[in-house]
């Protein structure tokens, strides 16, 4: 038993965080109460702001509290004519850290999964097709995860690109098959960018 | 770079939690945004409440949002006449889980550390002495950590008890020397309670 209902509530609420069990939730609660109440208050404020204000970029679907995210807004990135398609927002961070890519992104927020009712529309492919038709991209780089679903999704998007006559490539070498893009180290990811192959 | 300043703020704010580095803070932020916004909002609310309302129990100094905590208020615990002195609120939880102790606690919120300016007053020994003089305890059990500072603090409190003619004991067997009470398993802690020895 805890010595206070509110402390129990705090420990329970902290468990919404991934990887946080009862023991570490308790440690977190005590840490904040004992040593960092202002940090806890600041976290509370930014949590409310973020949960209520962060939506999806109108152009690339990644997380942003603006209509259009900072990457899509950047003229230098627009000028490259490159569009990299990824599954999740975290993949953008992983690719940004390699410094190998200076174009823009498109975030599927998942992958095709017909059995779960996730079709082309659910991963924003209507928006992607509209952009490919109306903007001028020089190349679409498919950086979905090297899994069965990621590959199938990449193939599906490659077809759209080829029908529109847009050069399309798939990042390839170095990513361990079955792995998650977000977990790959920078060097591996760099190689997979350099070794990308065009889909004809 | 993140795609939004607010997302960056959220990731930074999550790092106030112990054991949370940049990578896991990012994973937590994405998890909340993608899958559990209501959990994030609930966490925000209870964080504000807890950080602003939780203070210390007037009797035992543990964390509570009331004047007196649920353990100190409990008549059955008052009737035992036992008082267990611990360093931190987390130690109460560890002891409660053994089911070996049904008395009340006194939380020092630290231990004597003269070089850091932490003397008897800073760990509430004036309050403890006042309680020992005005209430009738049958035994004081010293459950400070088995470290140099914890032992020195226990010795100091034992002296107070002996001067007041109150039976005083130190939990002993089983706790690895240099270890932290909070980390000890329940069986070890149970043995250390059963094998406690009176200080004469
Ligand atoms: Zn965008
Ligand atoms: Zn209390």
Automatic annotation (TrEMBL), chains A, B:
Residues 81-176 form the Toprim domain. It comes from Conservatibacter flavescens. Transmembrane segments: none annotated. The keyword DNA repair applies. SUPFAM superfamilies: Recombination protein RecR (SSF111304). This is Recombination protein RecR. The gene is recR. GO terms for biological process: DNA recombination; DNA repair. The lineage of its organism: Bacteria, Pseudomonadati, Pseudomonadota, Gammaproteobacteria, Pasteurellales. GO terms for molecular function: DNA binding; zinc ion binding.
